[in-house]
Structure formats: structure tokens, C-alpha cells
Amino acid sequence: MPRIPRAALAALLAVTAVLAGGGGSSSTPSKLNATITVENGKPKGGVQNLKVKKGGSVHLVVTSDTADEIHIHGYDLHKDVAKGGTATFDFPAKIDGGFVIELENAKETLANLAVEP
């Protein structure tokens, strides 16, 4: 019986582990805890990409130096935030897909939320 080199065997085992694990979906958290800071009407550090498993929970805090409405599209959640204020969202991730979180009146995207099955 031929011997398989250790490096080839290690690579084969690594590929098998990834395939058995569903391609790494285990990295998606079931609880999302996120904070977005709005400075000068834009998300500090750029637009965030947030992920959570469907059936999980979302805790989102938005602090803003601009008065506006925070809108989580698809979930149709809205909250006003005052200049210098904070808006907090807590909701179950019941709908899978991609959802934009934005300053509604300014039409400024703050984050993209991915709810994965």
C-alpha cells in the first residue's frame, strides 16, 4: 500500500473538515452586539458589515452627532436619534437575508446586516 506524504494528508484532512463544517458558517455568531458611531453624519470607520445567525439576537447601539431617524430595512424598525443622542435596538433575527441600516433622512448607509440561515 502506498504511503501518503504527511503534507498531502494534512491538506486532505483540512479540506474534509471545512466541507463537513458547512464551509465555515460556524463563524457566524448567534448573538450580535454592535455599536455604530456617527460622526459628521457618516459612520465612523466606514460602513460596517454585521453578521448573525437566523434565530439569534441583535443588540445594536447607534450614537450620533446628527439628528435623524435610524432605519433597519427589511425588519422595518425605526428610531429617532437626537443630535448627540443614542438609539438602541434589540430584536430577534427572524428573517434571513441582507439588510441596510441607515440614517433615513440623510440616506447614509451605516451598516449592512447579514442574517444567515
Write a structural description.
It is a single chain. With about 120 residues, the chain is mainly beta. The chain has a single domain (about 30-115), classed as Sandwich (Immunoglobulin-like). Helix content is about 15%, strand content about 50%. The chain has one helix and nine strands; from the N terminus they run H-E-E-E-E-E-E-E-E-E. It has one helix spanning about 5-20; strands at about 30-40, 40-45, 50-55, 55-65, 70, 75-80, 85-90, 95-105, 110-115. The strands form two sheets. Strands 3-9-8-5-6 form a five-stranded mixed β-sheet, with no helix packed on it. It has a four-stranded mixed β-sheet with strand order 2-1-4-7, with no helix packed on it. A hairpin with a 4-residue loop joins strand 8 and strand 9. The longest helix is centred in the N-terminal third of the chain and has 15 residues, at about 5-20.
What is the element layout, followed by pairings?
Blueprint: H1 6-20, E1 31-39, E2 42-43, E3 48-53, E4 57-64, E5 68-72, E6 77-81, E7 85-92, E8 97-103, E9 108-116
Parallel strand pairs: 1-4, 3-9
Antiparallel strand pairs: 1-2, 4-7, 5-6, 5-8, 8-9
Number of domains: 1
Mean pLDDT: 85
Residue stretches low in confidence (pLDDT < 50, at least 5 long) are 4-25
CATH superfamily: Cupredoxins -  blue copper proteins
Q: What can be said about the biggest beta sheet?
A: 5 strands, mixed
